[in-house]
Amino acid sequence: MTVVTDAFTARHGRAPAGVWSAPGRVNLIGEHTDYNDGFVLPFALPHRAVVAAAPADGPVSRVRSVQEPSGAVEFSAASVVPGDVDGWAAYVAGTCWAFREAGHPVGEVELELDSDVPVGAGLSSSAAVECAVGVALAGLAGVEIGATELARIARRAENEFVGAPTGGMDQMASVHGRAGRLVFLDTRDDTVELVPFDLAAHGLELLVIDTRAPHAHAGGEYGARRADCERAAAALGVPALRDAVLADVERLPDDRIRRRARHVVTENERVLEVVRLLAADADPREIGPLLDASHTSMRDDFEITVPHVDVAVEAARDGGAVGARMTGGGFGGCVIALVPAGAVTAVTTTVQQAYAERGWTAPLVFPGTPSDGAGRVG
Ligand code: ADP
Ligand code: MG
């Protein structure tokens, strides 16, 4: 935060009007359920995008990122439309556009961005940028915007300005996240419930393992999974797989379609079971088998894991994790492991050794602590 504030002050000779931030996220459970009208259970990470901003003096907005040394990108926040800006600044300009489209006033801004959310690791660095910019625009305009509306503006920027056809989980987690809480989201109607997830009180940690595996064919495979789910829903005569029951799914004649649908239906059940356990104040260790079952389902039924991911999951369990699974869309990205505090070193070392033995790039391992969502920080 101080880095970006100091950079702003040094460049402009005045302090920013404010500093705002928004986090990346990790999904505890509920994978590929979002486009099936189902349930997801992400939480906000401590890693965040931070924005220092002030109204601009002239008719142009200028935005910079510490992570993009090529310099400032200029556009008019008051008139920018999709197609005007590409590259990283599209996430910023797109949020200005979507904010305006939602009927809110947008003036020109000087904006500095800094983020410690790893880019492209499936931790939603893009939503962190959009939500940080969105909350900054609201602050600069002096308008009160509800968290869910802010998430919708951020998602619109990503879908319609950047052109990435993503669901709304990332932005909802980034705005609704709270320290010590999971964001239980029903993607059918965007209702949110915060669920307690106090790991420290139970002597546990949730480790995030960034496998740094190359993302192979993720785009095409994502589209293929969505199409399979739509075919399954059509064959079952339900509006979405959220409405399907397992007994009917098991009677689907096509083996691949049956397995795809089985993943979605059982994954929704696992999300609900995790929420039920945690809301009833159970020991979080009890969700371990559900995390494991989620991984098996993604590996065997949905077929979206890759060797880097499967090896990290196996090694984490060998090292003492009470549950582990891939998180995110698949074909690389991150693994999460629920680990007794005393086994953190053993789990980390076991995963690192498994990678070293195979000659793979060392994974990054860090604690994922549920943290606060988007807001003003200075
Ligand atoms: P992720 O899984 O990290 O969200 P995406 O491909 O959706 O991956 O978004 C990554 C993109 O978001 C980057 O390529 C960049 O354009 C933009 N981005 C994220 N963080 C920053 C940052 N700190 N500065 C500039 N652009 C950023
Ligand atoms: Mg993203």
TrEMBL record:
GO terms for molecular function: galactokinase activity. The keyword ATP-binding applies. Keywords: ATP-binding, Carbohydrate metabolism, Galactose metabolism, Kinase, Nucleotide-binding, Transferase. Residues 282-355 form the GHMP kinase C-terminal domain. Residues 7-55 form the Galactokinase N-terminal domain. SUPFAM superfamilies: GHMP Kinase, C-terminal domain, Ribosomal protein S5 domain 2-like. This is Galactokinase. Residues 91-177 form the GHMP kinase N-terminal domain. Its EC number is 2.7.1.6. PANTHER family: GALACTOKINASE-RELATED, MEVALONATE KINASE/GALACTOKINASE.
